[in-house]
Amino acid sequence: MADLRLEREFPTTPDNLFAWISDGAKLLQWWGPEGMHVPEHDLDFSRLGPWYSVMANAEGQRYKVSGQVTHVDPPNSVGFTWGWHDDQDQRGAESHVTLTVEPSGDGARLILDHRDLGDDEIAANHESGWTSSLRRLEAQFQ
Fold it and tell me: Distance (Å, rounded) from C-alpha 51 to C-alpha 65?
């Protein structure tokens, strides 16, 4: 199984960065790769339980992903399972994401761990998507 780890520094407090990775209204402002929007969702990583999002591109292609929030430890980390749905809305292989916030100099560091991604190609696709999403998050602090 392939794993992915990305780290980014943000010019904000750990508490504020945690809000950006857990609060549904804030998540919607950066969730999904650039060029995507989220017309349907139950994004709330501030509580345990189910979540889902449907991302759509400009051509109208839709991509659904869902899972369970497995832990919430404010202001340190959230964890959730992750599984893509196919065209018949059947959920595929499950992986796990942990978003960890820690103090860093004058700001905060976000560590994204996405584990059990299957093969290297799947991990590379997720790295591309998460990198694009994190650029959207970084833009919230500029």
Answer: 9
Task: Give the largest CA-CA distance in the chain.
Answer: 47
Q: Which residues contact 132 (CB under 8 A, 6 or more apart)?
A: 33, 34
CATH code of the domain covering residue 102: 3.30.530.20
- What confidence tens digit (pLDDT) does each residue in 22-65 have? 999 999 999 999 999 999 999 999 999 999 999 999 999 999 99
Find the domain containing 95 and state its range. Answer: 4-139
Distance CA 26, CA 50 (A): 18
What's the structural domain count of the chain?
1
Task: Give me the residues paired with residue 115 across strands.
Answer: 96
* Burial profile 74-100: b = 16 or more Cβ within 10 angstroms, e = fewer: ebebbbbbbbbbeeeeeeeeebbbbbb
